[in-house]
Amino acid sequence: YTQERVLKDRIRELEGTHCRGHVASDYLKHVVMKYMEYTQVGDLKAQGLVPVLCTLLSLTPDERRIVENPGMPQPWLVLNQAVGGASTWLRGGG
What we know:
By secondary structure, the chain is mainly alpha-helical. The protein contains 4 helices and no strands. Helices cover 81% and strands 0% of the residues. The model has no long low-confidence stretch (mean pLDDT 76).
């Protein structure tokens, strides 16, 4: 009886883990999609998602440093966002 109970508890635990894993992968997919969407239009919101992605992907401190440093200086990021926003507006997207 005890072994059966332990096995049933373990099955329930594994099923719960599987469901949480599915939710985590859906969340990761959502964050990646938003990051790509923001990046394509030059929106600075993309930079705000980098720490979230670092956490979700369990990056090491060295990996974090690599991805958290933007490739462009801040003024260029702002200019990129302005140009991206203007082009979206001209295409009728916003």
